[in-house]
Amino acid sequence: MLTRKTYEAQAAIIAKHVEAGKVERDHLYEMATDLANYYAKDNPRFDRLRFFEACGFPGGFHLRAVPVEYVDASRYADGSPRDEPKAEPMQWKHYD
After folding, report:
1. Which of 13, 32, 73, 79 is most buried by a 10 A CB count?
2. 94 pLDDT more than 70
3. Dist CA 56 CA 59 (whole Å)
4. pLDDT at 24
5. Is position 33 within any domain?
6. Does residue 8 belong to any structural domain of this protein?
7. 3-state secondary structure the chain
């Protein structure tokens, strides 16, 4: 079983790189996640949130930027204009 000293040393190493910005945060978060998974298997009392906060990820989260794509609302996905109906309107049938 690893010691608390080991957990703290690993977290400090990751936090150093998070703060310096030398490595992308996504990669550091993935590395911290892999280590946390290993430590949790090794020690059932391992505190993931505390580890992630020590690694420089407040609240244990890492928010990633999601690319945004512009969508022209005046056209359908196939490029045809929206003013033309795409399909026949549904016909409601009444059953007696």
Report:
1. 32
2. no
3. 9
4. 80
5. yes
6. yes
7. CCCHHHHHHHHHHHHHHHHHCCCCHHHHHHHHHHHHHHHHHHCCCCCHHHHHHHCCCHHHCCCCCCCCCCCCCCECCCCCECCCCCCCCCCCCCCC
What are 38-49's pLDDT values in tens digits?
Answer: 999 988 898 888
- pLDDT tens-digit profile of 50-75? 888 898 888 777 666 667 776 666 77
CA dist 13 → 52, 60, 96 (Å): 12, 16, 75
* Chain mean pLDDT for the chain: 79
Pick from 32, 55, 42, 35: which is nearest to 3 by CA? 42
Q: How many CB atoms lie within 10 A of CB 7?
A: 20
Flag whether 96 is in a domain. no
The total number of structural domains that make up the chain: 1
d(CA 65, CA 71) in angstroms, rounded, equals 18
